[in-house]
Amino acid sequence: MCFDRDSAPPIPVIAGAAVSHDDLTLTSADGNRFAAFLAAPEEPARAGAVILPDVRGLYRFYEELALRFAERGYAALALDYFGRTAGAERRDDEFEYMPHVGQTTDDGVQADTRAAAAHLRGLGVEQLFTVGFCFGGRASWVAAASGHGLAGAIGFYGSPTRERGGPSVVARANDITAPILALQAGDDQNITAEDNAAFERTLTDAGVEHEIVTYDGAPHSFFDRKQEAFADASDDAWRRTLAFVDSHS
Predict the structure, then answer these.
(1) pLDDT for position 164
(2) Residues paired with residue 152 on neighbouring β-strands, in sequence order
(3) Strand positions, DSSP E, 42-164
(4) Contact call for residues 247 and 179 (beta carbons, < 8 A)
(5) Residues whose CB falls within 8 Å of the CB of residue 197, separated by 6 or more in sequence, listed in order
(6) Whole-angstrom distance, CA of residue 74 vs CA of residue 92
(7) Burial bucket for residue 77 (CB in 10 Å: 0-12, 13-18, 19+)
(8) Which of 5, 210, 238, 244 is the most exposed place for a label (fewest CB within 10 A)?
(9) CA neighbor of 54 nearest in space, from 131, 145, 167
(10) Contact status, residue 99 vs residue 82, Cβ threshold 8 Å
(11) What separation in angstroms does the CA of 78 have from each of 215, 216, 233?
């Protein structure tokens, strides 16, 4: 499973933080127009993140996550995957996303990631990260092998071994040029301990700086305010995310 539509990031709101936010339509190099959501602090941000959502694409959870980053001084831009097949307009909760997921490719997702990265750099961001979840966790690590000049790539419960629209992350390990942080769910039915071990082994062999953290007993999509039983795992994952960004900025 991925997040419910009424889920929210398990991150405290910083009341009174001076941030701005905008709905955007960006254009990638192949002419694709896609929806995005930008949140930025009032002061120019030196570090920023491209947020890569789960299989549903852009919706409220990731807009809220972008705001939480901005409250802490980072620019954040969450993108949608389905401009090529569903257009750039806002969609309601009844959107049937899976037929569109099946039509995505790594080349398309990374073209859109490149456009999002360029937009953030145009705002003055110098140290750029990707942060992805599920489908987007894998896409975040693929981004580290796609020539975006990232400072780091963070993935929550992404598959390192799945081929979806392109070769797996482990197959691309020798092309990865940025440090990797993987925040994995110990009770994930589709991403096994063997998958994570293969990721660890392959990154080590490729000489890629990395940390793979597995939260014992946590289910896929544990990073959710509704998952109160796994609040400690969520708190630790958020702490590690910010520490990773700070240490590589």
Answers:
(1) 86
(2) 129
(3) 47-52, 75-79, 127-133, 152-156
(4) no
(5) none
(6) 28
(7) buried
(8) 5
(9) 131
(10) no
(11) 25, 28, 23
pLDDT over 70 at 123, yes or no: yes
Q: What are the structure tokens assigned to 184, written together?
A: 């994995």
Q: Environment class of residue 101 by beta-carbon count within 10 Å: exposed (0-12), middle (13-18) or buried (19+)?
A: middle
The one-letter code for the residue type at 224 is D
Q: What share of the chain is helix, strand, coil (3-state, %, to 5)?
A: 35, 20, 45
Sorted by sequence, the CB contacts under 8 Å of residue 248 that are 6+ apart come out as 127, 129, 151, 152, 179
Q: How many CA atoms lie within 13 A of 145 on its CB side?
A: 21
**Among candidates 165, 28, 34, which has minimal Cα distance to 104?**
165
What's the pTM value of the predicted model, to 2 decimals? 0.97
Mean pLDDT along residues 37-54: 97
- Identify the band that residue 209 occupies on the pLDDT scale cut at 50, 70 and 90: very high
Residue 36 CB: number of other CB atoms within 10 A? 25
